[in-house]
Amino acid sequence: QGSLVESGGGSVQPGGSLKLSCATSGFAFSQCGVAWYRQAPGKERELVSSLNAGGGTFTYTDSVKGRFFLSRSQSKGTFYLQMNSLKIEDTAVYYCAACREGGTYQYWGQGTKVTVSS
Hints:
Elements: E1 3-7, E2 10-12, E3 18-25, E4 34-39, E5 46-51, E6 58-60, E7 68-73, E8 78-83, E9 92-101, E10 104-108, E11 112-116
Parallel strand pairs: 2-11
Antiparallel strand pairs: 1-3, 3-8, 4-5, 4-9, 5-6, 7-8, 9-10, 9-11
């Protein structure tokens, strides 16, 4: 049974940085694509960034391009979301996901809250 455990959320002022981590276990992480989603209050969940299973194709939603960076460590079985130049509108609960299958991800983290405020 696979699982994802997130960490790294918190409160930060506009312009600050945070790094989210997603530790994986119980499945072949190296063979899976990964992603970060977020859901802001009153809004639908949106895909923030993804990386395909081969590790060669990154996607970023337009609002975070150049500010957020997804990375993964095969040896640690962990992937990350480095978030720089944070804006108030980045406030949301962030979820990590792994192993895309049939149009959806098989494994999901519990969510970690990111609050950007002055």
